[in-house]
Write a structure and sequence with these properties.
With 423 residues, the protein is of the alpha/beta class. It folds into three domains: 220 residues, 3-Layer(aba) Sandwich (EreA/ChaN-like  fold); 66 residues, no CATH class; 123 residues. 44% of the residues lie in helices and 16% in strands. It contains 16 helices and twelve strands. The strands form two sheets. Strands 1, 2, 3, 4, 5, 6, 7, 8, 11 and 12 form a ten-stranded mixed sheet that branches. A two-stranded antiparallel ribbon has the order 9-10. The longest helix has 23 residues. The protein is globular. InterPro entries: Emycin_Estase, Hydrolase/PRTase-associated, UCP036794_erythomycin. Pfam families: Erythro_esteras (PF05139). This is Erythromycin esterase family protein.
Amino acid sequence: MNIDKMVGRIRKDAISFEHMEDLDVIIDAIGEAKIVLLGEASHGTSEFYTVRAELSKRLIRQKGFNFVAVEGDWPACYSVNQFIKSAQGAAESAEQALSDFNRWPTWMWANREVTDFINWIRATNQTLASENRIGFYGLDMYSLWESMAHIIAYLEKTGSSQLELAKKAFACFEPFGRDEQSYGISAGLLGESCEDEVVQLLIAMNKKRHQHPGSEASLDAEINTLVTMNAEKYYRTMVTGGPESWNVRDRHMVEVLKRTLDFYGTEAKAIVWEHNTHIGDARATDMADEGMVNVGQLIREEPECKQMFAIGFGTHHGQVLAGRAWGSPVEVMDVPRAISGSWEDYMHRAGNGKNQLLLFDSSQDEFNEITGHRAIGVVYDPNREFHNYVPSRMAQRYDAYIHIDETTALKPIAMESVISLFT
């Protein structure tokens, strides 16, 4: 792609983003969509969280959205949900509620930006009738053991006949000592899995769901059962490689979203916070060539989910919170200037270093050309920057894009655990 041609087209179509009020054009473009997907180019950038929070507040206030669903585990997010709804026995503060995010990378949700946002939701909920209160839920499925414990606690409380099935499934996992990798090796390579026990539990819990629908406690048990089934499959397929474990995870997230929408009723509206690699349509990237699907693609393919709007985010340079390896200490790292010829480079040139918004439509042929688009995970090495770009057709991947030219790192609640490269 000719750089001048791409930069010129961006300059023609881009909208300056200097104040939060400039987001009005995005809110207008969302229209009557019932599912709004808000991305991020990293899991450790403050501005991605604060802008998503501002968009979410407006969607809740102006368009009646019912809940926020995030790339986090269901049990930990459910603690936040109970806090913002002032439920009996809930945490007494946002920080306490977020302390349930106690597994690496804790900073993804236990940070000051999320603290401010959930305090806002809680204050808003206190002005609403209990049946109209905004929810906060997790779409992810890493919480295998936590979800099993939640299921058993629920069944014990309700005196359910499914309790023995749940205990049998839990007992199957116990020998692995909450070590997902050990279970994955045993199940995926040695054929010693707990799949049968989990499937039997899911069937029994689904029958219970149809017999006793309606309560949020039953939704909690239902999703935790789904987590248990799909987490088992995820860890079983992860050790063998290939795209299947990724696909299990994203299909799970879509299923959780659909069941939560069903819980809120036919007119329900959902806001989703996830990484760009999940919310931007996989068919517009090289993921499709590798046999991978994602949340953005799957939702667009669902007949009942046609009214959706996906917004990608990105940055040219700045700082980010991430780890050098999985489980390593979190650091404030430099995000280097985007490589020449990347999408972020084009946006930087077109805006002369300013923040910008873009709405995509079918007339923008330039934005259907393949361009490298940066993606930073919780594990990041700035010295291998070339490997962080996903070939993308931007106008097919998103409905809109928000560019923050220079970004700063998230502020985790446990600040003492952060290593700064600048100290």
